[in-house]
């Protein structure tokens, strides 16, 4: 895990190089075995926290409590609560990376960005790092469900927060990473082999020659739109959105896929996530719902003053890049099917996303072509 330590050292060095006086992020070389059942994992988590935070080192283990918060399809989240005194309890979130996620996630990119995003008010505060994860402040809020995202008030708030997120300046290259990442995924996915005969047989039905042609064609087609490049979240599904109902405060969390990317990809990807993991695309937002979101994204204080021409332009851009979202996560799923120990029908997910891409492609190409012709 020397590479992990180097990444954290680089993040701290980046602060010094940029004249940032922010407190250095502590790092521990501890590695937590994510395959352990929670009761066996708890002593290791407590040991990790004591190693990272010196004010907890002399506390008795009985003052710590550890519970599972959630587990997505890449990470395991644990809530650690510590009784620091008779009337004071502090909670943090320990995020454990899923095994083999380095094949689909650039951890260096994530860690270098997360400090700037945290400073800008996004997500949880980064408190420490370790061999296979990080510790962050605990957010007192509920995780959204896909159905929450289409509630007009919540949709407007997501759009507003995403607009602010896209204005954060992250040091380093500003080159969009969409096609870099997709080709990287493709190179890895196309050379895989599965030990399970049924999975290998299903894998062999995938035409990587066809898939490569689709990637090339879509890259050239979306390039005609000259979409703005922003620092994008790239994974704005309901599980990465939290809401404190009492305070009416929305949080964008988990920036592990974040990078500079095309604006339309981030919005189009979010709209695709209305369908949930079941990929029920009958739930994709209507044009009216998309317009509502786009207006609040462009001008949150006066959404009704945004011109129809401007809204339509972003709507078309978003529709084009929603196809790229399907390709991105479809190819990602092939890699996960081979590398991830998490129980999830990843190969089935590939076909759900790729089939929806092929279904939507002629409609989107027609829409974009008409828009470009009308704007000449």
TrEMBL record:
<keyword id="KW-0808">Transferase</keyword>
<dbReference type="GO" id="GO:0004305">
    <property type="term" value="F:ethanolamine kinase activity"/>
</dbReference>
<dbReference type="GO" id="GO:0005737">
    <property type="term" value="C:cytoplasm"/>
</dbReference>
<protein>
    <recommendedName>
        <fullName>ethanolamine kinase</fullName>
        <ecNumber>2.7.1.82</ecNumber>
    </recommendedName>
</protein>
<dbReference type="Pfam" id="PF01633">
    <property type="entry name" value="Choline_kinase"/>
</dbReference>
<comment type="pathway">
    <text>Phospholipid metabolism; phosphatidylethanolamine biosynthesis; phosphatidylethanolamine from ethanolamine: step 1/3.</text>
</comment>
<keyword id="KW-0418">Kinase</keyword>
<dbReference type="GO" id="GO:0006646">
    <property type="term" value="P:phosphatidylethanolamine biosynthetic process"/>
</dbReference>
